[in-house]
From TrEMBL:
GO terms for biological process: regulation of cell shape. Residues 274-283 have a biased composition (Basic and acidic residues). Involved in formation and maintenance of cell shape. Residues 130-270 form the Rod shape-determining protein MreC beta-barrel core domain. The keyword Zinc does not apply. The keyword 4Fe-4S does not apply. Belongs to the MreC family. Residues 274-313 are annotated as: Disordered. Keywords: Cell shape. This is Cell shape-determining protein MreC. It comes from Streptomyces toyocaensis. One of its GO terms (cellular component) is plasma membrane.
Length: 313
């Protein structure tokens, strides 16, 4: 339609009619005379509107998702950080519980042996002493640590102090090949010398080649003069093998140490020796042997067969 005077008059007329119908519809309320026409229009155009809405909604949702993707990414990153922090906290709690348990065992062993100890934590493995089996602890001269002091943990003998700094000290482990300690067999006076063999069991040379030793027997430290470098009564290990004497003047034992040298964390340095030898009181209680089940078989005599009874008759 061209823009003419007649078309403009027609447009003004249509607008006036529309406003009139709107006014009548509003004033009529539910009894509006145009209500039927409105329902007919809804019947015709409703499905079209729903179709258009269904087609447009995914696009709108996608636009909304894009708008919120930044917020969601930030929230996801925040949740990941919180999760990592929670895991670290749980790990820290587990570590703390483990250290508390180790400290508790250390206090028990020091109490049974009446050792005055200074607690320390292992901060390094394999100090500057070549390829020796050593650890570094976070206690030194400022804490009263001196050279040639006994080091133990809740399981038994760890080693001896070799080098001391102001705040740290180096400990030579009992597993080191250069390590030697005097030992005494449990419930007896058989003496010997235990030497480290790295990751293998300790090697113990008993002074008495005829000593009656069996697998499962246990050893403790014999102690040194003036209690340096070793105090008496510290658990050393369990006999795992006894070699034949072969006519030697000594008897060789292979001893599994109580201490796991690859899992050291909390240790104690004995800064004050006990007033008397604790002997075997520091050793852990022996596990009770598992009872061997016994089976009793009862034989019930069977009844005689019918045929045999008839023959006897």
């Amino acid at each position: 339609m061209r823009d003419t005077r007649e078309s403009r008059l027609l447009l003004v007329l249509l607008i006036a009619i529309a406003f009139a119908l709107i006014t009548v519809d509003i004033r009529g309320g539910e009894d509006s005379p145009v209500d039927g026409a409105r329902q007919a229009a809804a019947t015709v155009f409703g499905p079209i509107e729903n179709g258009v809405s269904s087609a447009v909604d995914p696009i709108g949702n996608a636009v909304t998702a894009v708008r919120e993707s930044g917020d969601r990414h930030d929230r996801l990153a925040e949740l990941e950080r919180e999760n990592a922090a929670l895991k670290a906290e749980l790990g820290s709690d587990d570590r703390s519980r483990s250290r508390l348990a180790q400290l508790d065992e250390l206090l028990k062993i020091s109490g049974r042996g009446q050792y005055g100890i200074k607690g320390a934590q292992v901060i390094a493995i394999g100090a500057a002493q070549g390829f020796s089996w050593t650890i570094t602890i976070d206690a030194g001269a400022d804490d009263g640590i001196k050279r040639d002091m006994t080091v133990l943990n809740g399981d038994g003998l760890v080693g001896r102090v070799t080098t001391v700094g102001p705040n740290t000290a180096t400990v030579l482990l009992a597993s080191d090949p250069d390590f030697t300690v005097g030992t005494r067999m449990e419930s007896g006076d058989e003496l010997g010398f235990a030497s480290g063999q790295g990751d293998r069991p300790l090697r113990v040379e008993l002074l008495n080649s005829k000593a009656e030793i069996k697998k499962g027997d246990r050893l403790v430290t014999f102690g040194s003069q003036a209690d340096k470098p070793f105090v008496p009564g510290v658990p050393v290990g369990v006999v795992s093998r006894v070699d034949p004497t072969g006519g030697n003047l000594t008897r060789t034992l292979h001893v599994t140490p109580f201490v796991s040298f690859s899992k050291l964390d909390v240790v104690g340095v004995v800064v004050q020796a006990p007033e008397k030898d604790p002997r075997d009181t520091v050793l852990p209680k022996k596990p009770k042997p598992t009872p061997t089940p016994t089976v009793t078989v009862t034989v019930t005599p069977s009844a005689p067969a019918d045929g045999l009874n008839q023959q006897e008759q």
